[in-house]
Write a structure and sequence with these properties.
265 residues, six-stranded mixed beta sheet, two-stranded parallel sheet, globular
Amino acid sequence: MGNLERWRSHNPMSDPGTGPLHFEGLPSDVAALCRVVQGVLIHSDWIAAYGVSEAAFRTVSRETLPLAARLGQICGADSRALAFERPADRRAVGTCRDYALMLCGMLRQHGVAARVRCGFAAYFKKPWEDHWICEYWRDGGWKRADAQLDGIVAPRLGIAFDPSDLPADMFITAGEAWRRCRSGEADPEMFGHGTAASGLWFVRVNVVRDHHSLNGRETSDWDTWRQATAAHRVLSEAECARADGIAAHPDAPFDAPLTPPWQRA
């Protein structure tokens, strides 16, 4: 369980700031909060599914912004309170991590222990697709929610479960994926990011990103994994051993942040 207090308070990424849009007065129910998140965000990969084009937006980016900046962006397109669902072309464009972070911030505002997790989902393109969700403490344990699965996305993926309480077999953390791969239980090539990357080296990327996220750093240098060359996609025994330790205890406090090998001098 660890110290839940560390995930009840805002960090620089989850803090909504003091702008005109805020989290006060929002519902506390997780499913209701997911709907609020869905009414202000649109995923960069799913824009066409909502009947709009990228040209309708001022900014189309995969960069995960601190919530204070994201709320300012949302307000610039539509200044109504967050509870009002925006038309698709007046939402802020983000990725799965932005949905997870927004839900996490809203839950923390209610005093609920919540955190953003990096891992792999079983309901996208690959058998296990790179994905981020929000984890929240309720009834003596951690529950998982995917706020991205709205009325547009969920039907297209054939989702038949409650996105506010993910079944255990629909999402696994990066550490669990790493354990399965290292034990021979799973093929590392089943884990990845679409057609861009797959394999044990990418699972390791997510192991480190999840560790960073649990320590209040939802973004990190490891988000630049696309810069990795073929040489960086082969792991040494020392790198695997280090990842074994992180995967076993992803919520352990930082020893020293790891620098991606593709960014080392």
